[in-house]
Write a structure and sequence with these properties.
Strand 15, helix 15 and strand 16 form a beta-alpha-beta unit. With 803 residues, the chain is α/β, with parallel strands linked by helices.
């Protein structure tokens, strides 16, 4: 209701009363003038006057209420500063223009039937119910004369805003009335939120610096004390507004101090990271030489004692490298700088690469090392193959280390899949010493070992499983263990991987379909692996659990006129081993048409010549790779003529013993018109140059050497190269600057040449830095031959190697 309406109502009621009284007096006068009938008329006039008086009383009552409201309104507006409300008996009865416009109030909301909490959201920002808050505030103002609180009210734009509400009680003679003065404090609340965030950052910085110096520890305690004082003063801000500016100044000073402390913490972290990076580089550079030269030494003719010494050096170097890698990875985890790549990869190849690395150690301990990847596992997924291999290597490496006899088996299966991702389950099973129940919960904690005594048989940093736990978490998976002392262990983990960005390769048409194959192996997992693959390739498969049974199966099949086309014989079997079974088979004329392939976990020098003399057609070492096994069998059976590579395989098979080397050479020979890839090795360290060249030679490749980035640019300008292996830290011009020159066109038409970083920089961010300057991929030293071969095959497959 407007001010004008209040005035009209009050004035109208008074005028009507005066009119009624005048009308009554006129009637009395008229009756006196009439004469004898005056008495009757006088009575009538009195009755009329009485009715008029009652009517006046009614009008007068309405007018007084309107006048009272008008007086209250003027009193409220005299008291208010800015935005004001009038509240009577808990209900809204009026508001000034500023409050009404801000809150979007209508006359209907000020008719005395709406409460203050109806202008509030259901809950205040701190979670309290608005009805309870307003009721408490009104009661406090009525009893104490004045009360205040911060209250969230709904503004006219539909958004909740926080106001400081001050209620003041006053009376106009008809009862207590409350005047509400509103002040918008939304910006102050936002400042307080930012202040709280700044304080939280200060506490984190203080916690980091607390470990470093006693002086900073004292400063952090003083900071916490002052922060508590600031928070306490902020809570009492309604009673101590005069101190607000001083508190803000103090807060700004403390925030500046916190920022300075955070800057010091960042500087300390940077110094630590630089130290670790330098130490990593300085250690990895000679380690690359030690490990590489030891590998080359082991490929030469050595006496038994010399080979034992070299093996010991290599094992010690590998152990030292594992410790360095664990410490660096744990440092990355602690600094929250451990990230995952997202590239397309074949999970089957990643698992086979990891297991292949452990084959020598398993063979030395005469352990059966097997790997089975379910055919349902997609051929191409998106993720970090390097970190996946790291987890498998850690779990399988522990299994080999803690198993003295029996087997270590790695299995991979598809748990779930969707159009966007696939969930894989990995299991590593062993027949080792097992783990006590009371030690399982601590396995995945850093620096924890099953046997932590000084007399323990097995060493280690106790970081490997902790790192695996973190990596699995980054892959949105879980990790666990099932084990009993003396009964072996089963470690498992899951990983959620994305679908590949490129289309998976189409499966190659079966070239072994229709073959009758006998698998002779005493090991259940090996039989399952081989029979699953052969069945998937369309073969008719039978199995035998030992040599005697295998010989009986082959003899019976030949007598029935259905001899086996191919027999896969395991070498390590009780009674009649694979080699002896081959001798027996070749002594039976009826079995002459059956091709024999020996599978062994213990490859030794001289095996090839001896097996060729016996009459074996193929020879592979375990663990078996799916592609390697298929191509070996195609070579042995002379199948695969539908491609030029297949022709090369078929031509190489007759009269020769097919090995993994034969398969690799036949595949390289299969590309018509192909030339040898031209590689450029950019490396300043002479020892690392020799190691890299020898490693490339073992892979059937060669390279031109440049001692620094400047020399590499000159060579690139002079001739065509298909791939560059680039060290990062070199004199005159480092690998980063050289790469930028190449990508900018400073090395001729090599702007798109693949550049692989081959560096001892292995800290967090080093890979990203290499990729950021334009390098194509990254290998950390010491470089493993298998990793180098995989890298070359992947990038040279994209190169044009036509003559």
């Amino acid at each position: 209701m407007t001010e004008r309406a209040h005035r009209q109502q009050a004035t109208g009621g008074t005028s009507a009363g005066r009119l009624d009284l005048a009308s009554g007096l006129l009637l009395v006068a008229a009756a006196a003038l009439i004469g004898r009938h005056g008495i009757v008329l006088l009575v009538s006039a009195l009755l009329v006057g009485l009715g008029a008086w009652r009517l006046r009383a009614n009008w007068l009552g309405l007018g007084e209420r309107g006048a009272r409201r008008w007086r209250l309104r003027h009193l409220a507006f005299d008291l208010s500063v800015g935005k004001s409300l009038i509240i009577e008996r808990g209900y809204l009865v009026d508001a000034n223009h500023a409050a009404g416009q801000l809150l979007g109030l209508t006359d209907e909301q000020l008719d005395g039937s709406h409460r203050l909490d109806e202008l509030c959201p259901i809950e205040q920002p701190d979670g309290r119910a608005s009805a309870a808050l307003t009721e408490t505030l009104l009661a406090a103002a009525l009893s104490g004369g004045q009360a205040g609180a911060d209250v969230a009210l709904m503004a006219a734009d539909g958004q909740a805003r926080v106001f400081e509400v001050i209620l003041t009680r006053f009376a106009d003679g008809h009862g207590p009335v409350l005047h509400a003065a509103l002040r918008d404090t939304s910006e102050r609340h936002e400042r307080e939120l930012r202040t709280a965030q700044a304080l939280q950052a200060a506490e984190l910085a203080h916690a980091e610096l607390q470990r470093r110096t006693i002086e900073l520890e004292d400063a952090s305690r003083e900071l916490r004390r002052r922060q508590r004082a600031v928070l306490s003063m902020m809570e009492d801000a309604n009673q101590a507004r005069g101190q607000a500016e001083a508190l803000n100044e103090e807060l700004q000073r403390q925030t500046a101090l916190a920022q300075a402390m955070a800057s010091q913490a960042e500087m300390a972290n940077t110094a630590k990271s630089e130290f670790l990076a330098n130490m990593s580089h300085e250690i990895r550079t000679p380690m690359n030489g030690v490990i590489g030269m030891t590998e080359l030494l082991l490929d030469t003719d050595l006496s038994p004692d010399q080979r034992q010494y070299a093996d010991t050096v290599r094992a010690s170097a590998d152990s030292l490298l594992a410790v360095i890698n664990d410490i660096l990875d744990f440092s990355k985890i602690e600094a929250r700088k451990l990230d995952l790549e997202a590239i397309d990869f074949d999970p089957r190849v990643a698992v086979e690469d990891a297991i292949d690395t452990l084959s020598v150690k398993a063979a030395q301990k005469k352990l059966e090392l097997t790997c089975f990847v379910s055919p349902q596992v997609p051929a191409l997924l998106l993720g970090d193959p390097g970190r996946l291999r790291q987890i498998i290597l850690n779990l399988a490496g522990n299994a080999v280390k803690f198993t003295e006899r029996g087997e270590v088996s790695v299995r991979v299966e598809l748990l779930d899949e969707s159009p966007d991702q696939a969930c894989l389950r990995f299991e590593v099973l062993d027949t080792g010493i097992g783990i006590p129940v009371d030690r399982r919960d601590a396995l995945f904690q850093p620096f924890t070992q099953v046997d932590s005594s000084t007399t323990r048989r097995f060493g280690g940093t106790g970081l490997g499983l902790a790192i695996c736990h973190q990596l699995v978490g980054l892959m949105h998976g879980q990790i666990g263990v099932e084990s009993n002392p003396g009964g072996g262990s089963r470690f498992w983990f899951t990983a959620v991987l994305g679908r590949a960005q490129q289309a998976p390769p189409k499966p190659r048409a079966a070239r072994l379909a229709g073959l009758r194959v006998l698998v002779v192996d005493d090991h259940d997992t090996n039989r399952l692996l081989v029979t699953t693959l052969l069945t998937e390739w369309g073969c008719e498969v039978e199995v035998a659990a030992d040599g005697i049974q295998g010989l009986d199966r082959m003899t019976s099949a030949a007598q029935a006129g259905r001899p086996f086309d191919l027999a896969l014989l395991d070498q390590q079997m009780p009674g009649l081993d694979g080699e002896s079974l081959g001798v027996e088979t070749r002594s039976i004329p009826a079995l002459a048409s059956t091709r024999l392939v020996l599978l062994t976990s213990l490859g030794r020098r001289g095996d090839a010549a001896r097996l060729r003399q016996i009459g074996f057609a193929g020879y592979l070492t375990k663990p078996l790779r799916q592609t390697q096994l298929r191509e070996c069998l195609e070579l042995v059976m002379g199948r695969g003529a539908d491609t030029s590579a297949g022709d090369a395989l078929a031509d190489a098979a007759p009269g020769s013993l097919v090995t993994r080397h034969t398969v690799a050479e036949a595949n390289r020979a299969g590309a018509p018109g192909a030339r040898e890839a031209k590689l450029l090795l950019v490396e300043d360290n002479a020892v690392n140059q020799k190691v890299a060249l020898a490693m490339l030679k073992r892979l059937g490749r060669s390279a031109t050497v440049a001692a620094n980035g400047r020399a590499a640019i000159e060579l690139l300008c002079q001739g065509k190269y298909d791939l560059v292996l680039m060290d990062c830290q070199m004199p005159e011009m480092d690998g980063f600057e050289a790469t930028e020159v190449v990508r900018s066109g400073g090395a001729g038409d090599h702007t798109d040449v693949p550049i692989i970083a081959m560096t001892a920089n292995a800290m967090a961010g080093d890979r990203e830095r290499c990729l950021a300057v334009g390098m194509s991929d990254y290998l950390a030293k010491p470089v493993q031959a298998a990793a180098l071969a995989e890298m070359l095959d992947r990038w040279l497959a994209k190169a044009d190697l036509r003559v």
